[in-house]
Design goal:
This protein is of the alpha+beta class. Among the domains are: 14-102, no CATH class; 246-305, no CATH class. Helix content is 20%, strand content 28%. The protein contains 7 helices and 20 strands. The strands form 6 sheets. The protein has a 9-stranded mixed beta sheet. It has a 3-stranded antiparallel beta sheet with strand order 18-19-20, with helices on one face. A two-stranded antiparallel sheet has the order 2-5. β18 (246-251) and β19 form a beta hairpin. It starts with a helix and ends in a 7-residue tail after the last strand.
Length: 312
Amino acid sequence: MRQFFIFLLAAFLAVQSPAGAIQKKKSQHREPAVKNAFLVSLKNRNTLIGVLRTHVIRNDESLIELAPEYDVGYNEITDANPGVDPWLPGNGTVVKIPTLKILPDAPYRGIVVNVAEMRLYYYTKRKGHTVVFTYPIGIGMEGFNTPPGIYRIVQKIKDPAWYIPDDIRKQDPQLPPYIPPGRNNPMGRFALRLSRPTYLIHGTNKPFCVGRMASHGCMRLYNRDIKQLFAMVPVNTPVRIIYQPVKVGVRNGGIYVEAHRDYLHRGGDPYDVIARWLLLKGNYQSIDAKKLRKALKKRTGIPVNVTDNPRR
């Protein structure tokens, strides 16, 4: 067991930088300031991973710059900090870094994409233990929504070319039929093709689009993230794309709710979602109605302990 944890630390965990130590305009290829690999605890049923962090803004840092450094998307860092100007948050402003997550309500197998939170989870095995890697993503814009469903990886492509679909070229006739591999290719250097072949998980030449509805349906990752994912994921890996704007989880006996914006208006009544989850999981702790209403109203994407008289 001890060797396993040493293996995790050596292989997957990035060294956390002290608050405020991140300098301006670092490349998106640098290692993130937080880890993206977590041991999934099946024994005690904890379904939260990570911790909530903070960062003190220095000089003219922006949330747009901080997002890739902490491996979060634009939507995550702006929703977690309502009222903070993403471009000019202000020197000395303390911002929340939403690196505490509830695992989606889906099988812990293969790739799970929760479109509503714009985040990908990859479950794999390491020495008999389930480990999850998680990355922020960009998704399809309005009219090109990333499609929910169950798929699989059918092809791994290094240095992909982009053969532009006819429907996209009709929107912008100036686009060429083909963009070769290279810096101008919007797919980056690595791509994973789904069994629905016009949809891929790939890198990007526009990292600021991660955490936004900006693609034609594909899922965009920071280039360092897709490089790591590409190396781990074999062909035939299952891919489950879901839409869960409200997630419910457990940590140390407490019930947590993580609420995101229901931008497609497909999430249903959040109170029904939570009630069904509690019933199916057999959790009968008393919920603090005031805390729950506040979490569902703010929708910051940060898990909130809504248990009545929660444990400290």
